[in-house]
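Researcher: Next entry: GntR family transcriptional regulator (Rouxiella silvae).
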Amino acid sequence: MDSIKRASDLIGEREQNLSTKAYEVLLNMLINRELPVNTVLQERRLAELLNISRTPVRDALNRLENEGFIIRTGGRTPVVKEFSIRELVETLHVRRTLESEAASLAAGRVPSAELDAIEAGIRKLLADSTPSPQEDWEIDSRLHSALAHYSGNMLLMQYIESLRLKTRMFNLRQVPERFVSGHHEHLEIIAALRSGDADGARAAAAKHIDNVRESIVRRLSQL
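Model: Predicted structure:
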């Protein structure tokens, strides 16, 4: 009986790992527009693409649905969700509240070596005549993740990460005019974090999110 239980546990653990893998791959495909809006997500085809069984794919799709990245049509078929402008504005409003609080809590707590690395990455991007969009996203993520992580609040970190991914569904390469100004705002946040200025970090983070929101809404209003 013990051997049967161990085998069952191993199978369950393997399925969980495969579900996580499927989730991460599909989320990355959504974020990078490899699965455009309104794409029908068929379990069988996705399972073949990922070379896994349909069960972990189904688990991944359920998780993505719960997180608001996909929806079910009338026939219960999952499709990639199209976000509305209202959802974008609401998402950025919540991000402003959460990330400004995280920045305040993280002030003076982020290791200098981490801030040095992030700042060096930002300055490298600003000096590059053809900066890589992927590197831009990675350094942006590193700073915002540091704010969340060093806030010391795990739940705050999880919410911020989820909302940032949803924001990226809207603004990936859609507001190129934000590249230089956005990174200078990042440098302002870093300066406040270095000095342990909680109020300054809070204000800089709030200003950054406000400017992101205004730029995206302005761009969408021109379409």
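Model: Note for the record: The chain is about 75% helix and 5% strand.
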